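Translate sequence into structure tokens.
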Amino acid sequence: MKDFVKELTWRGMIHQMMPGTDELLNKEQTTAYLGIDPTADSLHIGHLCGVMMLRHLQRCGHKPLALIGGATGMIGDPSGKSQERKLLNEETLRHNVSCIKAQLAHFLDFDSGEPNAAELVNNYDWMKEFSFLDFAREIGKCITVNYMMAKESVKRRLNGEFQDGMSFTEFTYQLLQGYDFLHLYQTKGCKLQMGGSDQWGNITTGTELIRRKLGNDYEAYALVCPLITKADGRSSARPSTATSGSTNATPPPMCSISSGSMWPMTTQSATSRYSPTSTSPPSKLSSRSTARIPAAAPCSAAWQRR
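Result follows.
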């Protein structure tokens, strides 16, 4: 197996990881997952780094799980948000899930039959029969309110920075995501969860839930990548206006992913930074090709050469 952490490191794709993650990945074929909430019918630029982490994980000999949040998508993750997401109905969510599944197949090998073939999982499958009372008894008692309120995504919404505060629905999101990790740990042997840096709090709630539910001998790990940001520092996944919103990745064709509204406005230095993040070539080839990418490329060379 190739060194996954080394691969991500030279690409600038590690923002933070729990101690012991590198040792786990070098010791055994590791199953890892990354979650995507189907809040739209397409992946967008903000998902790119996470999807590429799954791609590199598989290329390094490990097994990727792509989790589509059919259940958590009904609530909406408050991480990095200034206001609550609009709740989607089941029909819209089913449509979005179907579209995202088709897109992920362009990046991951689901059909090889190899031990590290990728799998798609949907948390609605294990949450749909879980009643509120059962969840409160089995999961809610394992994590204290004090622990949950210490998370940055919660504190920012409750400290008066945003006038709308946080609903109970959003407050429970980190428990739902934590339970996903516990479920995949028990059913798929998944020991690592990955995501963007804004997911660190939710992911570590999962590692803590596994420890408290199963015992200290059961170890789980976390690894997050930097967010892809616009020139003003805002995440590309956090739209503020119709003209400066996140950029979708809707096919067909896959090579003409409509990232043009973001990449032409990206500086040369930023393009050099994001090219290793969003492409698959090895280090030497990537460094040579990055030098040839113009500052105002008409279409994202990074997307085209995935």
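Note: The beta strands are 16-17, 31-36, 63-68, 119-122, 190-196, 221-225.
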